[in-house]
Amino acid sequence: MRMIDLIEKKRDGQPLSNSEIRFFINGFTTGDIPDYQVSALLMAIYFQGMNRAETVNLTLAMAESGDMLDLSDITDYAVDKHSSGGVGDKTSLIVLPLVASFGVPIAKMSGRGLGFTGGTLDKLESISGYKANLSEAEFRRIVRETGIALAGQSKSLAPADGKIYALRDVTATVASLPLIASSIMSKKLAAGAGGIVLDVKAGRGSFMKTPDEARTLATAMVRIGLDAGRDMVALLSDMNQPLGVAVGNALEVAEAVMTLQGRGPDDIHEHCVEIAAHMLRLAGRGDVRTDLAETRREVDRALRSGGAYEYFCRMVAAHGGDLRQVEDLSRLPQARLRYSLPARQAGSVAVIQADKAAWAALALGAGKATKADVIDHAVGIEVHANVGDEVAAGDRLMTVHANDEGRLQAALELLTGAVQYSAQPVPRLPLFHGLVDGQEM
Ligand code: URA
Question: Is 76 exposed, middle or buried (0-12, 13-18, 19+ CB in 10 A)?
Fold first, then answer.
């Protein structure tokens, strides 16, 4: 087999066979096929796309390019979740302990920030001592002993995806549906879950800008999972305004802890209840004899009861994190400067641009603009209003937490104009735009 023939075939719009896909993935993983040929193939895929069988074969080849985690000694059915990335999205910090509190073991490998979206591990590392990079043996021991571990993705998980993603990043081939879907799903399939709930975001604060685009991506990922023998549900969630109040690492940990104690903002509480209810139904927990609405009620009661908070504390302690910072949130990293941003005028809040809030948080130092940057866990933004709220001129809209005057100014410039008002009442944004599951496939 020759790589040049594969490139030519895809360039001319013909599908690649499973053995051709395996040849290219294995050859690239071992270093036998050079970057320039893979770049050419990726560009051909970008323009010609891939059919359902090709996309599944590509995903499985990438998943099997490294270790496939076998969790059967821990549980006979593992559930996982994945968010396509949003602004203020601290869902994993809440949902995973919540699901674990129902007796479902959680062995979760998570990522770091990508583009303007924050990463779960960066958030957790706001807690002093939290060790996200674990050996597989440590990871398994923590799940067995505490029922939940939330760690960094091991380097041996889907290594082909890591290499291909790095090439896509520099060859303008990131924004390809089969490449995005196979990249995300290869890591999920390798991570050992039997059931996967996808939280696919739609809106100005996510990669997919409209519910239709999000549905297309969700459908591609659900198909891959089903064809690979997994149980799948994808929820399409709104990401036009930040989720919850906090955007920034320590601020988001604090909000997650408050939500786990039953005193979080309504939107993040409801969002987490929905995701957890679907995870529990896949795992066959909760009262599955009744309808989803009853499972939701059960999960809602559990989240208000504080039981999930206990699991979060156990997880933090098992990962070496300083529990005193969880018990007393004022001990989490605090920024030196706080700036209150008032509403410019009275009216209904019509737009809060989540992307601008995310860029402002990055400008403050909450994420990395270059590989060499060091994350400042203390900085970020609290957005005190939601679309649809009535405000008076001068009401506090946002609080900006900064450690540097220059960065504060840069963030304020980005935030100016991020909020728009209307003289007419504005409806609230929905939390979800629908769901994709096996029924439609
Ligand atoms: N996240 C991933 O892991 N891969 C993509 O291609 C896009 C988002």
Answer: exposed
What are the residues whose beta carbons fall under 8 Å from the beta carbon of 376, sequence distance 6 or more? 333, 335, 364, 365, 366, 403
Containing 107, the helix (H) or strand (E) segment is: strand 106-110
- pLDDT tier, 400 (very low <50, low <70, confident <90, very high otherwise): very high
The structure tokens listed for 266 are 């309504």
82 catalytically annotated: yes
Instruction: Please list the residues that pair with 390 across neighbouring strands.
Output: 348
114 C-alpha to center of ligand 1: Å?
9
List strand residue ranges (DSSP E) for 206-300, in order. Answer: 231-238, 246-247
Does the predicted TM-score (pTM) go above 0.85?
yes
- The answer to whether residue 168 is catalytic is yes
CA distances to 176, 272, 280, 312 from 244, in Å: 30, 11, 23, 19
Domains of the chain by start residue, with CATH = 3-63 (1.20.970.10), 79-327+433-440 (3.40.1030.10), 334-422 (3.90.1170.30)
What confidence category does residue 375 fall into, taking pLDDT thresholds of 50, 70 and 90? very high
pLDDT band at 110 (very low <50, low <70, confident <90, very high): confident
Active site residue 183: yes
* Selection from 169, 160, 175, 213 nearest residue 46 by Cα: 175
Work out whether strand 148-152 and strand 106-110 pair parallel, antiparallel, or are unpaired: parallel
Q: Give the number of other CB atoms < 10 A from CB of residue 68.
A: 14
Residues in the chain: 441
Annotated catalytic residue within 108, 123, 163, 187 = 187
Q: Whose CA is nearest to atom 7 of ligand 1?
A: 180
Looking at ligand 1, which atom is closest to the CA of residue 111?
3
The structure tokens 């504005």 sit at 426
Contact 233, 243 (CB under 8 A): no
Ligand 1 proximity of 109 Cβ (cutoff 6 Å): no
Mean pLDDT of 52-63: 97
Residue 230 DSSP code: -
Q: Is the CB of 183 under 6 A from ligand 1?
A: yes
Inform me whether the pLDDT recorded for 294 exceeds 60. Answer: yes
Query: Sign (positive/negative) of CA torsion 231, 237, 243, 247?
Result: positive
For residue 180 and ligand 1, the question of a CB distance below 6 A is answered with yes
Atom of ligand 1 nearest to the CA of 174: 6
User: What's the whole-number average pLDDT of the chain?
Assistant: 94
Tokens of 44: 């051909």
Angstrom distance (rounded) from CA 161 to CA 164: 5
